[in-house]
Hints:
Blueprint: H1 2-15, H2 24-35, E1 40-41, E2 88-93, E3 108-110, E4 113-117, E5 123-127, E6 132-136, H3 141-145, E7 150-155, E8 158-163, E9 167-172, E10 178-183, E11 193-195, E12 198-202, E13 207-212, E14 218-223, E15 237-240, E16 243-247, E17 253-257, E18 263-267, E19 287-288, E20 292-297, E21 301-306, E22 312-316, E23 325-327, E24 330-334, E25 339-344, E26 350-355, H4 362-365, E27 370-375, E28 379-384, E29 388-393, E30 399-404, E31 414-416, E32 419-424, E33 427-431
Parallel strand pairs: 1-22
Antiparallel strand pairs: 2-33, 3-4, 4-5, 5-6, 7-8, 8-9, 9-10, 11-12, 12-13, 13-14, 15-16, 16-17, 17-18, 19-20, 20-21, 21-22, 23-24, 24-25, 25-26, 27-28, 28-29, 29-30, 31-32, 32-33
Amino acid sequence: MNKLIILLIAFFFINNCSFNENSKLWQDKEKELASKPNIKKVFSKEKKIVSEFNQDLKLDISFDKTNNKVFNNRNNFGFQNFEGELNKTGNFKFSKFKDFSQIDFFPIILKDGVIFFDRKGSIIKYNKDQKIIWKRNYYSDLEKKLLPKLDFILNKENLIVTDNISKYYSFNLNSGELNWSKNNAYPFNSDIKKYGNKFYVIDYKNTLRCFSVIDGSECWNLQTEDTFTVSSSKYSLILLNDIIVFNNSVGDITAVDIKTGLITWLLPTQGRDIVSEAFNFKFSKLVSDNNSIFFSNNKSEFYSIDVKTGTINWIAEINSNITPIIVGNFIFTISNEGFLYIIEKNQGNIVRITNLYKNYKEKEKKNLYPIGFAIGNKNLYLTNSNGRIIVVDLSSGDILKEQKVSGNLISKPLIFNNSIYLIRNGSIDKYN
């Protein structure tokens, strides 16, 4: 084992020569970002936003329509239909996970129930009354001990599943019959997107893979720059017309032709040091309005990128790895310090900043950070690492209420059919 480790380290340093400070790739990238006339950096590093801004501004949000989706190929959900009072109306119970520190796995929410999984990889379907209809497990005893975490996508009457132990499979939701089951060379580390009879997913080697929904065979794959460090963030991908756009652990944004897997454009967003920092580098999901792509990271960079060319429209200095939400001409995001930013979409101008942690003492803020948020008809709902949810009036920015959900971590809010669903360790709670 020691010999293997030494060989791996030696291999890393031998192949790391392309990342030295004289590397043309990084020199060109840094010069490009500094010299492009169309790039607008909204705030310079000398002008960090650390306080509230434009607090008297009332935002007109009446023009945008609500939607009722929990899956979207552009990760663009906008306003969703919810006007409830956060009254708990039920929960869907499952066996607790040993490790619940990374909550980035979500259920399939149906009109008549919910589909999720438990600690040993059993897939469970509940009815709307929180009763278990069926429970399926397609793992061996050895695989169950690895405690697989699953991602799902529906394909008509079938469910396609990928996991973090390299397995992927499909089964019929009605009969429970396994359609096919295969193993990838490496574990998967992204959600799944589907288009036609193909589905797309990214593994830990920064490789985008295209599979057939019919038999699970691989259609094509594209490996981007790899590191020996496993990312602590889940990779993101979106489908836009005839291209797939995705990120990787070193901050590259790549657009690929959906049919051939050939690169359309590639944008590196980080410098040469990111390889050694990959584990601590965290980023939001990619979100798109079909013209631009928006995302941010914990290095205080919020990007707007042109879909067609991959060029940077603007960069704002916002420290966040929370997935942003687009509403009309505005982008909403929340910094890792608990500030709600409202950004003008086209130019990147910051319209308003609200401190959502203003009621917390400095000592309480040390271990406090946002998990994720959703936007209802009038309010924003933010979940936090202390197990509480904060409700914010979008128009005024006022904090309307704060409610305890759990003593530990909870997931980002999921809105469907005028209800909010929150995952905590051992159950999915439903609120109206």
